[in-house]
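Checklist before submission:
- one chain only
- standard amino acids only
- sequence pasted in full

Submission:
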Amino acid sequence: MHHLHRPRGRIAYDLYGPGNDGTLVVCVPGMFDHRASFRFVGAALADAGHRVAVMDLRGHGDSDTTFDRYDNRAAAEDALALIEELDGTGAVVVGCSMGGAAATIAAGERPELVAGIALLGPFLRSATPNLFTRVMLRLLLLRPWGPKALTSYYDSLHTGRKPEGHEEQKARVMAMLRPPDRFRAVRSTIHAPHEEVLDADGLSARAVVLVGEQDPDWPDPAAEAAWVASVVGGSVRMVPECGHYPQSQRPDLVVPALLDLVEEVRAGA
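Returned file contents:
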């Protein structure tokens, strides 16, 4: 594990293939997720000759809880700082859920650093939860049951195939949520004023959108994927037997898509 020093705290990240000379790929998880959800992607891309940095969000995993901002723009700024820390240009940023918006914001802000984005189950616009969901979310975020309830909710988003090592990943998430300061940071992330990315005109990064066919976050996952692709000017790959976490549920399909994106980026450099 490594740490990226930021003005108000440190961001934890794992580095796969540190000695490789291929493209730098930075992976950004979603809220209440742990960076280990990218464990299969990181290892596979490193085996293909690329450097892969997988970060935790602020207050998540092993990142510090001392920040004053936990929104998706802050995550984008951290991803850009990590690219600069690792001397990367023309990097590919892979973002899941909230991390998808962070990847898109980062590409728009610093096109010289981000040449490609892969958006996995991305939230570029706010969902409009029904009354039941709003009530359930408030209940999920109360202690003392909050950490266990949120871990169970995390588990429920894995509709379709369960990843190898899923129980261990749930244990990581549960351990992450137990400390009061870390639970507060995760709660701050959930309630943060996240930016909506409704228009990405001028975005130069090549883009691919990967959404699980069984993603429970949308009534029509294919329609949401098509809308996201229309915003970022990217292609769509629907992922069968998969919910909200393609990187861990179907790495067998995600890794080839990411390798294709890397090759597109390299060909267009």
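Reviewer check: The chain has a mean pLDDT of 94.
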